[in-house]
Amino acid sequence: MTRIFTLLALMTFMPWFAFANEVERGEKVFKKCRSCHQVGAKAKIKNGPPLNGLFGRVAGTYENAKYSDAMQSAGADGLTWTQENLDKFLTKPRSFVAHTSMSFSGLKKLQDRADVIAYLLTFNIDLGMLAAKDDPAVNAEILAMVGDVEYGEYLGSSCVTCHQIDGTDQGLPSITGWPNAAFVTVMHAYKNKHRDNPVMQQHAGALSNEEIAALAAYFERVH
Amino acid sequence: MKLNRRLFIGSSVVAAASLSAPMVLGATGKPRVVIIGGGAGGATAARYIAKGSKGAIDVTLIEPTRTYYTCFFSNLYIGGFRDFSSIGHTYGKLAADYGINVVHDWAVGVDRDAKSVTLAGGGKLAYDRLIISPGIDFKEGAVEGWDLSSQNKMPHAYKAGSQTQLLKAQVDAMPAGGTFAMVAPPNPFRCPPGPYERVSMVAHQLKENNPTAKILIVDPKPKFSKQGLFEEGWNNHYAGMIERVGPDFGGDNVSVNPDEMTVTIDGEVNKVDVCNVIPAMKAGKIADIAGVTNDKGWAPVNAADMSSKMDANIHVLGDASQQGDMPKSGFSANSQAKVCANAVRGALTGSKVFPAKFANTCWSLINEDDGIKVGASYEATAEKIKKIEGFVSKTGENAETRKATYEESIGWYNGISADMFG
Question: pLDDT of B9-25, one tens digit each?
Answer without folding.
Answer: 334 434 333 443 334 44
